[in-house]
Structure formats: structure tokens, C-alpha cells
Amino acid sequence: MDSRSIAAAIDRFERRALDRPDLRHSAVAIAVVEEAEGPAFLLTRRAATLRRHAGQWALPGGRIEPGETASEAARRELAEELGLHLPAEAELGALDDYASRSGFLITPVVFWAGSPGELTPDPGEVGEVHRVPLKLIDVEPRFISIPESDRPVIQLPLFGRFVHAPTGAILHQFREVVLHGRDTRVAHYEQPVFAWR
How far are the Cα atoms of 36, 97, 144, 193, 196 from residue 102, in angstroms, in the given order? Predict the structure, then answer.
């Protein structure tokens, strides 16, 4: 799988934007990198010292500043969090918006990062950074019920643990769209209660 095949899969997909002016608009980056064993993407564990969502699995990203596009914000966050500077033409497309329980409307933007070399994570934001082979997310998620919601909570198996929404939902859609060519929607999947704040 290369940048052309990923871009073609996303281009074929009809992205759904959400109209939620009550939420703060943010963007995350699915940055695909070339590894010896095949393509991978960059996934972080948030620093343990952060006030919100400390230690959680996350895609690099953050709030969209006034005048920024989702792509510009995602590229800025990649540079700030991981020291990875990508040009505008690295963008391959975007997936569906996801409305988080913590008040953010998240736009996932997919990039081809090639062979970025050594990354320089910001220790104030990033506890760990992993280059995750795409084959590791080509798995069926687990769905559980919680008394606080009638929506299914998605849990994506990874590293012997589970990645929850929004990250787990976004990665599941990436898997469905890019690896299997399926127009799977994930905006209705719930987050665990600990991520609501």
C-alpha cells in the first residue's frame, strides 16, 4: 500500500461533515509512514502530566485556530507534538467528523509522511510515540454497553489493550475505508465515561 492507493480509497469515500457550532473544532493527523515491514501510522500516548486525558492513546492533533483549515491545524500539531513538518501536498484526504463528549468536533486528516527519520516528541504533550503497522488495526473491534448511554462503546484491540473512541473510532473507519474499501460510519460510536470530561 502506497500514498496513491490510500489517496484513491479516501477520494472514493464520501466524507460526512457535522454541523455542530456548539463544539470546539479540532483536527487530528493520521500520518502514514514507510517502514521496512510496510506502512505504519503514528500513534501517541499523551503525557501523564497533562490536565485532560493524561496517558490516553491519541492521534497527534488539537484545536483549529482562527483562520486555519483542518489540514493546517493537523500539520501544525504534528510539528509541535512530534517535530514532524509536512507540506500541504502531503495531505491525502479526510475522514468523517467525530463529535467528542469532551466538547470537540474532530476532523481526521490523513497524510503521507514517507520516511520521516527520527521524531522529536514534545515531552510536555507526548509520553510515547509508536509507529503502528497498519496490519495491527486490521482487526474487528469489540463493542460493549454502558448504562450511561444507549450507543455502543467501541474498543479497538491494540498492544494487548483497547483504544477507545474517539481515537479507536477514527482508526476503525480508516481501516474500513483504506484497507477494505468499505463506507463504514463511526460517528455514532460512544466513548467510555472516563473520556467524557
Answer: 37, 14, 20, 10, 5
- The mean pLDDT value of the chain amounts to 92
Tell me the C-alpha distance between 12 and 45, whole Å.
31
Residues 19, 35: Cα–Cα separation, whole Å = 37
pTM, 2 dp: 0.93
Q: Return the residue matching grid coordinates 461533515.
A: 17
Alpha helix (H) residue ranges in the chain:
3-12, 70-82, 167-174, 180
Q: Where are the domains of the chain?
A: 3-195
CA distance 166 to 195: 9
Q: What is the assigned CATH class of domain 3-195?
A: alpha beta
